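In this section we walk through a basic example: taking a raw amino acid sequence and producing a predicted 3D structure, encoded as discrete structure tokens. The instruction is simple. Fold the sequence below.
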Amino acid sequence: MKKLSLILILLLIAGITKISAQADTQADIAMIKKNLAASKENMKKYEWIETTTTFMKGEQKSLTQKQCYYSLDGKLTKVETGGSTEAKKPGGIRGKVASNKKEDMTDYVNNSIAKILTYLPPDAEKIQKIYGSGKMSMQILEPNKKFKLSFPEYNEPGDLLSMSIDKVNQKIMAVDVTTSVDDPKQKVIFNVTFSNLPDGTQYPGKTTLDAQAKDLKIVIENSGFKNAAGK
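The resulting token sequence is shown next.
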């Protein structure tokens, strides 16, 4: 009888623990959705500079700066500034070969940046759907303080989006994504560090994409935030 009672107590404790964990996770998902929605709306009040630097085999190949702001219709607008630079091209036959390679790589870079934008900012409804399906997993980074929530097949089969959150301060710290650009067999990884504006608005401060198969790295940084004209 005592043994049976002990088993029942352990099962009860396990059940309570599971319910508590589910409640905590639901609260984390709600916090993420709230932050994403608030930040998406608040960003419309600002303008800022987006700096994109491309590296090939560890060597800087280009740097592009764009002024970013939201137009009156709510569309994100990016205008290239005079701060853009590009590596010098060799002449002659070497120059033509280099030009062809550059064109191919330019397409890949553009496709890579476009792919990043399909994950940023993370879509709250997709996150909720994956959580509801039971596929989400959790990793404890710091007990009761910091966690990483992973959402498989966020956009497509085989990809993975993970979000690191600061539960104490109710903030998103980072987003990590494993996906592909033009070949499912060639995985690319990009890491996003989130930053905070004085009013609490969160934004992707620095995004680094690493495509090892192409020996390519792309770094995108957002800075110089100020109130947009007329807002």
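Looking at the output, two observations stand out. Residues 2-227 form one domain. Confidence is low (pLDDT under 50) at residues 8-23, 92-100. In the next section we compare this with other chains.
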